[in-house]
């Protein structure tokens, strides 16, 4: 039992590190996507919604401590990702279709949660090329929320569907002896 808990903690720590590293890389390159939830999605699919939510929350807490405290409120988005993916994966087999559908759901839910936080923290800007769309939408008379929300939907369609499909492909490509049931049941 102790080996199982230790393995799970190490796995979650690696997932948090993956979230942070991918988030830093995409942010540094000013890409209009985030990729900072791949570890959260993987853990949520493998171990369930509560582990996914925990990985998501700890990712943002650590990035807030290490880099920028303004990242901490966005943990609500990452927790939602963990919960939604975990419950979907629990209810349905994690397939290509379910990963795409889940990505579409996340593409709407995440901006609904993240847009008010982004407006509160950064005035609606993201620091990416999508800021041009934000400024144009404001210039033509949209509210700050709408001007910030629409570019985030577009970014998240690519990011969340892509992240979910990457996790599906990763899980599908794992050798049989490294599947969740084999690794964690052999340690008991």
Could you please describe the fold and organization of this structure?
This protein is mainly alpha-helical. Helices cover 77% and strands 0% of the residues. It contains eight helices and no strands. The chain has helices spanning 2-28, 38-47, 49-66, 75-91, 96-122, 131-139, 144-173, 180-186. Helix 4 runs antiparallel to helix 5 (96-122) and helix 6 (131-139) packs antiparallel against helix 7. It is globular. The protein starts with a helix and ends with a helix. The model has no long low-confidence stretch (mean pLDDT 90).
Summary keywords:
single chain, 8 helices
Largest sheet: none
What level of helicity do the residues show? Answer: over 70%
Low-confidence segments: none
Number of helices: 8
Radius of gyration: 17 Å
Provide the residue-averaged pLDDT. 90
Distance between the termini: 5 Å
Order of SSEs: HHHHHHHH
Give the strand content: under 5%
According to DSSP, the number of beta strands is 0
General form? globular
Structural class: mainly alpha
Topology of helices and strands:
Layout: H1 2-28, H2 38-47, H3 49-66, H4 75-91, H5 96-122, H6 131-139, H7 144-173, H8 180-186
């Amino acid at each position: 039992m102790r080996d199982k808990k230790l393995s799970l903690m190490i796995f979650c720590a690696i997932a948090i590190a993956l979230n942070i590293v991918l988030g830093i890389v995409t942010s540094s390159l000013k890409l209009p996507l985030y990729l900072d939830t791949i570890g959260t999605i993987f853990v949520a699919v493998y171990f369930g919604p509560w582990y996914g939510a925990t990985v998501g929350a700890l990712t943002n807490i650590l990035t807030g401590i290490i880099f920028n405290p303004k990242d901490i409120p966005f943990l609500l988005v990452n927790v939602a990702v963990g919960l939604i993916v975990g419950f979907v994966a629990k209810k349905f087999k994690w397939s290509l279709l379910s990963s795409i559908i889940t990505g579409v759901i996340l593409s709407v839910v995440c901006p609904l949660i993240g847009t008010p936080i982004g407006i509160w923290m950064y005035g609606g800007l993201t620091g990416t090329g999508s800021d041009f769309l934000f400024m144009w939408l404001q210039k033509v008379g949209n509210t700050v929320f709408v001007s910030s929300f629409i570019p985030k939907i577009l970014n998240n369609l690519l990011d969340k569907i892509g992240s979910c499909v990457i996790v599906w492909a990763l899980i599908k490509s794992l050798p049989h002896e490294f599947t969740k049931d084999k690794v964690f049941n052999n340690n008991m």
